[in-house]
Design brief:
The structure holds three protein chains of three kinds. Chain A is an alpha+beta fold. Helices cover about 30% and strands about 35% of the residues of chain A. In chain B, strand 3 and strand 4 form a beta hairpin. Chain B has helices at about 1-25, 35-65, 80-85, 90-120, 145-155, 220-235, 240-250, and strands at about 160-170, 170-180, 185-190, 195-200, 275-280, 285. In chain B, helix 1 (about 1-25) runs antiparallel to helix 2 (about 35-65). The chains are: A alpha+beta, B alpha+beta, C alpha+beta. Chains in contact: A-B, A-C.
Amino acid sequence: MGVTVLQPYPLPEGKSGAYIIDHLSKRLLSLGATHAGQFLVDCETFISTPQHGGAPSRAVHVLHNSEYPASTFSIIDNGTGKQVSLVADNIFDLLMLKMTATFASKKQTKIESRGARFEYGDFVIKLGSVTMMEHFKGILIEIEYKSCVILSYCWEMIREMLQGFLGMQVPKDYPNYFTTQTIMNAMGQQQLLHAKHNDLYEPMDTVKQYLEQFTNYRKHVNVHVGGAAGVSVQPIHMPPSSIVGVGVGMGRP
Amino acid sequence: MDKLNSTLTAVKSLRSNVRQCFEHLADGTDGEAAEESRNKFVHEFQDKFGAINSQLREVEQLINALQVPQTAYSLGNTAYLALETAQDRHTLYPQLVNSYKWIDKVHDHSFLAFNNLNQNTLRRSYNYCSQKRPRLPFSSFNNDPDHIDKLLSEINTPPHTSYRVFRPFGSNAVAIVTISNVLKAAIVFKGVLIEWVTVKGYDEPLEQDDLWAESRYEVFRKVQEHAHSAMLHFFSPTLPDLAVKSYVTWLNSHIKLFLEPCKRCGKYIASGLPPTWRDLRTLEPFHEECRNC
Amino acid sequence: MAMASVSSARESLQHALTNRFLPNLEYLLQGSILDSAVEHLMHRLKGLCDNVDTSPEPFHDLEVCMSLRQPNSNQPLLLRVRRAMDRDAPMQMRYLGQPEVDQRRPTLVRSCMDCACTNGILDFLTEMGFRLEFEYLAKGYMFRKGRMKITVSKLIKIVHGKQQDMANEPISQSYIVELSVVAPTGQENVGEEMRVFAEQLKPLVQLEKIDYKRLGPMP
């Protein structure tokens, strides 16, 4: 278990996702990396059914990461900016099904990232294609440096590695997830979240980065469908922190 | 006893006769030879076969004439093994024989190892020069627990490094060093001399009951290799305290293992690894490939 | 680059359910014994059970029961969270279904799901809308015989706001004795196995299936 950084890869005009993945795999292999299996990260969101009027709706995001096959990761967002995260056995999935009366699954927003996994020294690189309801949404690149547990120690290494096989510049600043973020709380005040780049890294951090990216992709589809078909789509509740994350965020070239 | 002896002799000659008979059969006839030689062959075989038969009878007679010995033969101490009545202890005798064999083997091997090690000039623990030149005998391998505790506590520890000392092997100390959140190292002492170093990642377990397993990360396996060569470099039997101090200072320079690029090529990564080598004097970081050019 | 693709967690869970190797049924017998007689029972269990080479395994757990009101149903959803007070272990969350009332079966049978969790579970459930229903401490010993689990424990009421341990008082002058097995669906012989074992503990303790319906609504 080590520091992991998740980056979306911008799709150039006129190139298909499969083409980019193929291209990047070839670059990795020629760099000396070896192909080491497949991976899958999936996410399903449950929304609380409206009960007593006024109470903000709560969202439970349930994620799985094939790197930790016996665990279910869940993050609850109570609608006022507070998030609580939990790691549990897989049985947690069955328990969620017991609560369908209170928490309904948003089936149409089930989203996943899957693809090939590469190893290079102590690095693990995963090239994932993101799909939601069988629709291709984009490419997420995950890079993990297994032997280090603090981002600020090894960010320069990870950056050099990323630049090496992506063939593009990566900014010197820490990725958005790790830096201080300003969020609005329920009372409309600004709150400073603690910066994570000097914290011990945990598997939950990887999952939270995925959730942040997935939320971005979901938002895109909603805007798109809403605009094109003229159907009003109930916006899914999103953690305010990740909304800020979109603006400043990881959508760097 | 005589009877037993003659019986054994009879068995012996029976065996040799049987053997001769089979040899004769295996040799066969001359091949081209005619009726005559074939007859001769059959006759000889019949003779031998007859001899075997008569000898077999003789052996049987002798065996029947044998008496069950009145008293048990004296087998020394091993006789007591046979007296054991518990069923599960009957197997002790073969085990005993096995252990003797093993002890013999161990003795042989250690003798060979001893000879080999005697030729090795890197031998550090024992005073081998004193025979040629009388010199102040050094006592760095002597054990004085208080001295080691004092030495380790005197080492100028940077705030990010912590030491945990314990003695799992009697009086010899093992120090587990945790350098910031980067790595853990177990230093095994023999007296004041460093005997072994194991390097592992911060999130890997390093406990006193498993000091020898290698790290699961490539980078720390490489660092451990370098740590061993540094251990030999800093070895100084005449000034053991200084040797330990400089070694620990060198080890502490790994705090920036992932943070510093290679002094020579200016890059962080070479073949998947950060600069794992720290110069022994200047403590500057180098990739393994860059360090010798 | 053709490699077997990874199956999702949901798929493997479904696989475990359909192939019946996910233990999800609890078979339970309960009884109680007076404090004064518990030593005799302990001796009896030491003679009968497997894990007594050293000494019976002690435990000291805090159980917190959380409930969630469900729309269109008067039965709230109950989840029990257990935390070990005497060792560092993950917290355990347990869902228990309604007990089956089948007179032919020798034990009480109810669906059961156990799930190990990180420490944030109580906070997590609170955010989901769960409310505290009741809590108590259970302190006692655990025995094992084959796949059967036998616990002999004292239930202790928690009195808040005072010096810990001092104020907490036992609920009664007796120990609760529970014999249980959690097994996958379709293993009918479990009940019989338990009945035979319970027979051996008589007359020290009478282990029975308790009909919760007769005891009135859940506390």
